[in-house]
Amino acid sequence: MTPTPAARIADLRRQLEDANYRYHVLDEPSIPDAEYDRLLRELDELEAAHPDLVTADSPTQRVGNAPAGKFAEVRHAIPMLSLGNAFSDEEVHDFVRRIAEKLKRPTLQFSAEPKLDGLAISLRYENGVFVQGATRGDGATGEDVTLNLRTVKAIPLKLRGKDWPAVLEVRGEVYMPRADFETYNEHARLHGGKVLANPRNGAAGSLRQLDPRITAQRPLAFFAYGTGLVEGGELPDSHSATLKQLRARGFPVSSLSEVVEGAEGLLDYYRRIGEARDGLPFDIDGVVYKLDDGEGQREMGFVSRAPRWAIAHKFPAQEQATTVEAIEIQIGRTGAATPVARLTPVHVAGVIVTNATLHNADQIARLDVRVGDHVIVRRAGDVIPEVAGVILDRRPDGTMPWQMPTHCPVCGAEIVREEGEAVWRCSGELSCPAQRKESLRHFASRRAMDIEGLGDRYIEDLSDLGYLASVADLYKLTLEDLLEMKRQVDVREGTTPETVKAGKVATKWAENLIEAIDRSRRTTLERFLFALGIQHVGESTAKALAVWFGDLQRIRHLPWPLFKRVPDIGGEVARSLGHFFDQPGNQQAIDDLLARGVVIDDTHAPSGKLRAGLDLATLLVDLEIPKVTRVRAEQLASAFPSVDALLDAPAHNFVTAGLPSDSANAFAAWLEDEANAKLLTRSGAALDELLANTPDDVGVSAGPLDGKTVVLTGGLAAMSRDEAGEKLEALGAKVAGSVSKKTHLVVAGEAAGSKLAKAQELGIEIWDEAQLLAFLAQHGSGA
């Protein structure tokens, strides 16, 4: 029998309320998010069809109200009092002693709980239904944020169970979990949204949005920690029992709450929570102690605006104000350039902070941090201190916005940022001391120069002890260097064996490493290019460069637009190659490698296929000149026979050549930039050199897989995936590592996984190993 709409609505509400309770209170999710969303959509559709059945406590009523003009004031029936603070063990002992003396009790039970760093609120329920929510405000009067609080899923819209008090006010804290805060900010950074300063400010700001739809997008949570007004019913006469009942009614309550005895119990709790603090999923700034029994609370009473029976034991502050003395750049092991603020020393969370990260240039621009500014510095546990905000009303006169330096402070190479990325990087990969160890690891790796036995430990020790200042220094290492390095390490670590003390050292490991270094001297162009560690240049790109250009000397002096003549190399990769080879330090490192005996065995002439794109019009397109499209480039190439002719032509001649005035003006303005004119000149000369040395492509026959992208996945029995890839490339294929809409063929071996599934989803042709072997045999490239 089909249930009536009213019955189905009631059932859906029950399921959704139960799911919320299990998720937010019990921390035991009962249904997947997709199922929750499906039930919510069904309820929403039923209520839309039967608006007379909509109630204020329905889960559908959490979001959707129009923005408010302003927040109304709410006078708290019972004031939301503040707490006195304790900062030392002695103050905690004094707190306990005062209560014991007044109540004349030798032992006291306290409810101890974390002090969340969020926004205190009061929730009013009438006959079990949420009717109003307000901020603490000044304690007597707060702001009505009911509509915003309805969007917080952890806050029940209707109490569980029965026999509720006619009126029940629940006090608690709205907060933003750390992980959700970081996820929200990362999304905001990527999409140009507002970045929140810290979880506490994020929670407070979210609840004070005039539009509750904005609040609904913020990752807010809630913990109940007490009650206010109670009418028409009773609660237990102890704080801990009240918390248990609130949990049963549907409110999240911190699982870290405990009942402890006396001052020593309180201090032990403080220490345990302090030790766990950095690993908690939410921010806390201390713990709260409350006398557990209600009779004792009433007897103790209040002083001024605080209860005598409760106190907050604060942790050392995690935020402090200080002054930015300088902003410097720190280069990481991968070349990332991170701005760091040098600060007037300040105590934050128990340590003296003198430096704080500013993350990246975009973050500095968002915060508008300047040298001389007074800033708020935040430190949470072992996390590197960060500048959370600027105190603008204390900004000195004459400060200037900060600009990212153009060159690396360590090696002098250009600092570059690719379009769409937040991170700036030093482009002196091989020459930058800050990137030395990472360069060495990559250079020696199996798919690069394949120096067997040169592991991380040796790279660390050889670099730290001064034997390796660059990758080229690998090829001047001697057996004596390695043995002396080992002796120094043993002495440093206090593990010097008796044989070393006697002057005898086992040498086999060192001999093997020297032999491996020597073997790596003879290599291929593909391996050498990959070993250089150029940003965005993986194995497939290195192979393509080697196949199409054939010669290291040609590649290392090529202007970046010409790299785009290689299929699948776009502007981002081409510019990365250009930046790398434009750095004198990188060129010197290559010279040093060649001078120390590195030989590339497979140098050859450029591929004849290059000729099809070696013309002036294509060059102008590859230069990415504003408003110079393929059509405009061909018009210019028809009117001007060479780069020199273009450079010598007055601007009005570009209009004569057929360009619209806006395109002609854009091209003329581009040429007026000296750097652009030099790039065009260099590119024109490189184009001529390539044409002179590139053979006719008449004799170049296309392979059966020419222009096809192939992906290998799973295990093959007859050969390794690398071997299969080489055979496919010999037949013209491009072997890629991931499946996309551009993939033409997927070869699936044993235990093929997600790549096979994606290929099936996209309708891409799929071969098994037998089909692959048959194809290779047919085209003379079998196993």
UniProtKB/TrEMBL annotation:
One of its GO terms (molecular function) is ligase activity. InterPro entries: BRCT_dom, BRCT_dom_sf, DisA/LigA_HHH, DNA_ligase, DNA_ligase_AS, DNAligase_adenylation, DNAligase_N, NA-bd_OB-fold. Its EC number is 6.5.1.2. Zn(2+) binds at C408, C411, C432. Gene3D superfamilies: 5' to 3' exonuclease, C-terminal subdomain (1.10.150.20), 6.20.10.30, BRCT domain (3.40.50.10190), DNA ligase/mRNA capping enzyme (3.30.470.30), Helix hairpin bin (1.10.287.610), Nucleic acid-binding proteins (2.40.50.140). DNA ligase that catalyzes the formation of phosphodiester linkages between 5'-phosphoryl and 3'-hydroxyl groups in double-stranded DNA using NAD as a coenzyme and as the energy source for the reaction. It is essential for DNA replication and repair of damaged DNA. This is DNA ligase.
